[in-house]
Write a structure and sequence with these properties.
CATH topology of the largest domain: hpI Integrase, Chain A
Number of strands: 3
Strand content: under 5%
Order of helices and strands: HHHHHHHHHHHEEEHHHHHH
Helix content: 40-55%
CATH superfamily of the largest domain: Intergrase catalytic core
Number of helices: 17
Oligomer: single chain
Strand order of the largest sheet: 1-2-3
């Protein structure tokens, strides 16, 4: 926390300069200037020269009769955001992208124990992505027992755990999702017992957890549907150039969303006509041929669509601050946008970017591509994982099915 003081006038000057550095448009900068002028004027009337977040909020709410709760007018929202931006720069020396409501947080009574569990998981070698998933699952569990009247983890009872298991079973989750939650819950209960938070080994409630990865047939889209998706991208627009390249990476090359997000300019080996990177999920290196159409789409995006800033990442936000996408972004809105435009029904199919990876595998299989080749393209460790995609190619299965004579 910044304990120093700064004049409101100087803070406003510094923030305006920072907005220019981040590449905000002149219209947006002018909006901030206008709000800052209102804030400075009211504070000056009150004889306030140094910045104070609480005082600025109070005075502006009073000046424009802005309610604490309820729906606000757009100019009121932007004025309050301006004060938050001033405060962010005052404390951190930087400005964050947005001020959306934070996600669901764990009850304060369980913050410490959850923090210790996550810290130990990371120290044991589990990835941040894995621990983020466990964190979300455990926040739901801990908030559930909090609503049930448990205010300390030491008071956790077997009945509460079993009640939660019954609760998630009634939510309509798939067996694979439930098993994932139970795996996390079991490891958390073991941690609680080993560290002395609880005295009963409740992890024994789950001696064996069955998970069937083949429970559901993976969703896939045929070649005509994929072509239709790509044809509905407006490649004359800057964002369209980005979306087209992003979709080509997913549809034509089967690259995972996380790897697309982390893709760097150095991953493109122009002389070798390959794309080379370390896969985020497996940690394994992969080398993929760079087709001519993707090469041209890449050049078009870099020259005519990508924000003109220094960054090693290929894909950047198209709104200031122009930064790489956050790690939770899986580009779900991008693929859904063009599916809707192409009027492709996905009510009974998954429609995230990962479904494009399944689709690539299925379509390669239909074109008689051999297993080892598909395995190499997808970056799987072995053909065992690739075999999961057999379940989606019903037509191919029918071709190799043995004829059963009819017996009257």
């Amino acid at each position: 926390m910044n304990n120093t003081t700064i004049s409101l006038k100087q803070l406003i000057i510094d923030v305006e300069s920072h907005l220019i550095t981040l590449g905000y448009t002149q219209n947006t900068i002018n909006r901030y200037k206008s709000c800052c002028k209102k804030i400075f004027k009211r504070c000056n009337i009150e004889g306030i020269n140094e910045f104070s977040y609480e005082l600025c909020m109070f005075l502006i709410r009073e000046e424009y009769n802005i309610p604490i709760s309820g729906k606000l007018k757009s100019h009121h929202i932007f004025c309050l955001r301006t004060i938050k931006v001033l405060n962010e720069y005052y404390i951190y020396g930087k400005i964050f992208k947005c001020h959306q409501k934070s996600g669901v947080r764990v009850a304060s009574e369980f913050e410490e124990v959850l923090s210790v569990f996550i810290k130990l998981g990371l120290e044991s070698g589990l990835t941040e992505r894995t621990m983020e998933t466990k964190y979300i699952q455990l926040v739901r569990f801990l908030n559930y027992i909090k609503e049930g009247g448990i205010n300390s983890i030491n008071l956790l009872k077997t009945e509460s755990v079993l009640s939660y298991v019954k609760f998630i079973s009634e939510q309509g989750y798939s067996a694979s999702t439930r098993s994932g939650v139970l795996f996390t819950l079991r490891s958390f209960l073991l941690f609680l017992y080993d560290t002395g938070y609880i005295t009963v080994p409740m992890q024994q409630l789950f001696p064996v957890i069955f998970s069937n990865k083949m429970e559901r047939i993976p969703s896939y889209y045929n070649e005509n549907e994929l072509k239709s998706i790509l044809s509905h991208v407006n490649r004359d627009e800057e964002i369209g150039k980005r979306d087209y390249l992003l979709l080509l990476f997913a549809i034509q090359l089967g690259i995972r969303a996380g790897d697309i997000r982390l893709m760097k300019l150095e991953s493109i080996q122009w002389g070798k006509n390959t794309i080379e990177f370390i896969q985020q999920k497996t940690g394994n290196p992969i080398q993929i041929p760079l087709p001519e159409n993707i090469k041209f789409a890449l050049i078009d995006y870099i020259k005519n669509g990508r924000p003109k800033i220094e960054s090693s990442y290929i894909f950047l936000r198209h709104r200031a601050p122009f930064e790489p996408y956050v790690k939770t972004n899986v580009f779900h809105n991008v693929i859904t946008k063009y599916m809707d435009k192409a009027r492709i029904s996905y009510s009974d199919r998954k429609h995230g970017l990962h479904s494009m990876r399944h689709s690539l595998a299925s379509n390669l299989l239909k074109n008689n591509t051999r297993y080892p080749v598909i395995t190499g393209i997808l970056g799987h460790k072995g053909t065992g994982t690739t075999r999961m995609y057999l379940s989606i190619d019903i037509e191919q299965l029918c071709l190799v099915a043995l004829e059963v004579p009819y017996e009257g």
